[in-house]
Amino acid sequence: MRSLEHPEPEEMTLDAVLSALADPVRLTIVRQLADGHDDQACIAFELPVSKSTSTHHFRVLREAGVISQHYRGTAILNGLRSDALNQRFPGLLDAILAAR
Amino acid sequence: MRSLEHPEPEEMTLDAVLSALADPVRLTIVRQLADGHDDQACIAFELPVSKSTSTHHFRVLREAGVISQHYRGTAILNGLRSDALNQRFPGLLDAILAAR
């Protein structure tokens, strides 16, 4: 089974996390993950972009450390890395999720 | 006296604020403003970029609502808009300033 790379909390940088979150499509993904359960397939997100653009957005979030991605068969399941984010940047995720 | 435009708190968007903060030079400016007093001239910041690039970074921060900029003679004085940020996005600035 292929696996995808995820930064450890101490490897996450504030630049990368803020850059990852500074996009309306990626904020939509993060909010949907925060509102629902984990392990949502990419296909479960209704995003106003093409599949390849959507794949790019998920990858940016994963490489910054914001979400986890794991293969299940041919699907990729996504989860919010709340614990890692709260450990590395306390209060940041809550402040962003509270913003409307 | 010329004056520069600043968004009202309700006009600020999370995208723009996060984009403005998602840059190491701009985070340096914000941290220096948070650590020191307000009304620091652009020339008081030791930034590893050219003057024109530095001017660009200050403008991005102002247009997002993160800093204020006001002319005093030919100098531009900068201040952190902590109150506006805390009103519009509670907890966000504190979480970002606490991150290292």
Automatic annotation (TrEMBL), chains A, B:
Transmembrane segments: none annotated. It comes from the Bacteria. This is Helix-turn-helix transcriptional regulator. Gene3D superfamilies: Winged helix-like DNA-binding domain superfamily/Winged helix DNA-binding domain. Residues 6-100 form the HTH arsR-type domain. Keywords: DNA-binding, Transcription, Transcription regulation. InterPro entries: ArsR-like_HTH, HTH_ArsR_DNA-bd_dom, HTH_MetalResp_TranReg, WH-like_DNA-bd_sf, WH_DNA-bd_sf. The keyword Acetylation does not apply.
